[in-house]
Amino acid sequence: MKAYVLTPDGPKLTQTDPPKPRPAEVLVRVRAAALNRVDLAMTRGHVHGGAGGEGAVLGLEWAGEVVETGPEVQGLAVGQRVMGSGAGAFGEFTTADYGGVWPIPDADMSFETAATLPVALRTMHDAVVTNGALQPGQAVMINGASSGVGLMGLQIARAMGAGLVVGSSTNPERRARLAEFGADLAVDPNDERWVGEVLEATEKRGVDLVVDQVSGPGLRRLMQATRVTGRIVNVGRLGGERAEFDFDLHAMRRIAYVGVTFRTRSRSEVREIVRKAREDLWAHLEAGRLSLPIDRVFPLDEVEQALARMKANAHFGKIVLSIP
């Protein structure tokens, strides 16, 4: 099969053997794959959980058709249109544990559209609902809201009954579009007034929940914008993995600070995360209330141009590879 593989000389589009499904896995003919920022690190040899490393097919998010099922697979059949996340998305075939696979919710949904959804759905449902403990009527802030995952976070917060949804972005054009995805208030983290804007919108209390994709030195101001006994769920570190931590402010506001990643999740944990997300979000998916914009579609032969566009941060929404 044709695939984008990390070789000793760097990533290359080449021919390789298709993978074989294990007993609890499906073999999928990939028709489209979506890019995620971690793909850039994996092209440099970084390992992401069980994905990546020399000899690996790169890519983490895909949509396609089931062509083979292992003997332990439940609820999926050969020929079914599916979407999912896991290793080996940038190739003509991939395998995945059946418990992490989603049926494509609409017969008319394209593979390119479906490929944009799995990572954002499971990541943000886990952050907003499971770890964020969102309750109807509460105020939620998605820090770093203009990414694909961030845009889905805004929509999930709205779908699950948030009373106020705040999104942040440093880019004015992207910030202006956050309202399309459910934001009541869009703030600029580079503007010193943003904490005051959030406090004013919440009658001086602060938001009940922050889902933070940025971290770094901006954490202190996030705590200032979080109510006493509120929660901050850290899902990303685009602003830096290390920064000073104001322990006194953290204690004074009695904030629950929760770190999450999929890199240390067991297969059974991922299955449960996907099960919960499907239970809460399936009706919204079927109704078309949860979606992400596609920035641009590249053929698999132009995977390096697609990655370059992501590295340049020139996109809004998802960059997708088409794999006919």
Could you please describe the fold and organization of this structure?
This protein is α/β, with parallel strands linked by helices. It folds into two domains: 2-117 and 292-322, Alpha-Beta Complex (Quinone Oxidoreductase, Chain A, domain 1); 120-259, Medium-chain alcohol dehydrogenases, catalytic domain (Quinone Oxidoreductase, Chain A, domain 1). It has ten helices and 17 strands. Strands 3, 6, 7, 8, 9, 16 and 17 form a seven-stranded mixed sheet that branches. Strands 12-11-10-13-14-15 form a six-stranded parallel sheet, sandwiched between helices. Strands 1-2 form a two-stranded antiparallel sheet. β14, α8 and β15 (256-259) form a beta-alpha-beta unit. The longest helix has 20 residues, at 267-286. The two termini are 12 Å apart. The model has no long low-confidence stretch (mean pLDDT 96). It comes from Phenylobacterium terrae. Residues 1-22 are annotated as: Disordered. Residues 6-321 form the Enoyl reductase (ER) domain. Keywords: NADP, Oxidoreductase. InterPro entries: ADH-like_C, ADH-like_N, ER, GroES-like_sf, NAD(P)-bd_dom_sf.
Fold blueprint:
Blueprint: E1 2-7, E2 10-15, E3 25-34, H1 38-43, E4 47-48, E5 51-52, E6 61-69, E7 81-85, E8 93-97, E9 101-103, H2 111-115, H3 118-131, E10 139-143, H4 148-159, E11 164-168, H5 172-176, E12 185-187, H6 194-201, E13 207-212, H7 219-224, E14 226-234, H8 247-253, E15 256-259, H9 267-286, E16 294-299, H10 303-311, E17 318-322
